[in-house]
Automatic annotation (TrEMBL):
Keywords of this entry: DNA-binding, Transcription, Transcription regulation
UniProt name for this protein: DNA-binding SARP family transcriptional activator
Family stated for the protein in its record: Belongs to the AfsR/DnrI/RedD regulatory family.
Organism: Streptosporangium lutulentum
Cross-referenced CDD domains: BTAD (cd15831)
Amino acid sequence: MTVDQIASVYDFQMLGPLQVCRDGVAVALPARHPRMLLAALLLHNGEIVAEGQLLEQVWDHGVGSVIALRTAVSRLRSWLRDTVGAVASIEHVDGGYRLRLPDGSVDATRFRVALAADSDISGLDPHQRLANLMNALEQWRGPVLEGAPDGVREDPVVRALDDDHATCLQRLAALAISVQAPELLLPRTRALAQARPFDEPLHTRLIELYAACGRPAEALMEYERLRSRLADELGVAPSADAQRAHLAVLDQDPPVLGGFERTYGMGWGRPVVPHQIPADIADFTGRDKATAFLLDHLSGVLDDPMRPAAPVAGVTGPAGAGKSALAVHLAHRLVPTYTDGQLYADLGGAGAVPEAPARVLGRFLRALGVGHAAVPEDLAERTALYRSLMDNRRILVVLDNAVGEAQVRPLLPGSATCSVLITSRSRLVGIGGARIVDLDRFEVDHAVHLLASIVGHERLAAEPEAAAELVQLCDRLPLAVRICGARLAARPHWPISGLVVMLRDEHRRLDELSVADLAIRDGLRQSHSRLREDARKALAQLARLGSVEFAVGTAAAVCGLNHADAEACLDALVEARFVSVVASGQAGRFHYRLDDLVRLFVLDLVPAR
């Protein structure tokens, strides 16, 4: 079967704003009246809905007409035919209309089937029941047909679906407590309970969840709010079930959550708040524009009620440009904004073996309070649990040294209350909605200021010309400047000019740019090992050009490639940060250049090849 012959999958969604998807992608809906007619018929899929009821619901208390209804039906039929083909049909039967869709293509039907299939006497393991019902709950994106006219939203089917939603959450809450994972359901149960202030069973489960999470004060406050609301509005006392939950909180000792470990901070009355960001750099210098931009994006966007997803920011640049230092500095500045904590992982993009997302998720889950035995083995299950625990919490996730999109995607939270900051030598353009900041080398004055902050301003003031030449020999890379500063600070008797003399020798320069566990060569070596073979060979030839600018035609001639292949190799080298685009020539032709440290590194490899 060819790709063109594979049938599309259609999904009609009403557990939230009305939406129709084809192969997982939302399609444009018809105009208002045909759209609302679709919503009204979708509530009764396969059943006849009287014309009078449709007029009342779609046109709001009978201001429409039979002619307007038939026109809307005609337009809806045309839209269905053009959009989903034979999957859907509308019939005129006995003074009404009936929509026919396969049950599996409607989210509400799938949800109800899964809920009906669940039973505490079915013999299923509670973990399996929890997984099944969580899958059913994922069908919900918001209130039923959110944004539809009141006439549609007042349909009894809407109320019944809302009740089923609450029933599902009540069962899930009980299951989550039984398998000692109450944090999974707390945010969703709390949100729905706020929308259903007089739903006593749901508020009772919320009280029990608070208690099971080790938050007795909030459990008692929830009961008191429920008691006051019932007394003031209805003149009744809480149910016996709610009162039993209240007494259990008053009588209980701090709960032992087998799946959650107190060693990670799950205290009595206090959720886990991870703080994993490494120490900030005391002499952090420069990057004012990048810092201001990212602070604005990662803090201001959280106050936007229309944000659709977790804000993502990326910091890219060559090896040694200070991407990790900037990310750590930003994370410390953002501590007051992300009150529920910060997660950090070095994804190993600068090392020989990048971190697997499953391993990182395991560490994140344990930091969020999940015990070793409760961490799932499967990557998809780890991701689902991670996103559940992050839901509605203000947590910043810092993913340092990422290799590519596939490594990052499982680590992205699903909640718009969280944010993600990624550093990578690649731009990671496949992460939708990410705001990217490119870090280049320092300006000379910023590089000199960094050097002064390490070795002292008096020392630089004595040799300003040597300091300026030193940072140029470092290609103005923050890491290289920091290495030189560390070497000079460890040898206060050395003149700056003495180190400059050593760096002028191109055969020694990379050897001199190393101190303790910091070395310019290490980052270059890892990036070089990930180059494809044709780009690696082209780089070796281009290094022989010296410190000059060149165009694609020059690269093609030097490397023995045609123009298209030379351009492809240069694109790969630019992406890997070995080649810089320095200017645009005539007719939009780009000029390129190898920076000195890159050129010296590559030339150093040539004799060994």
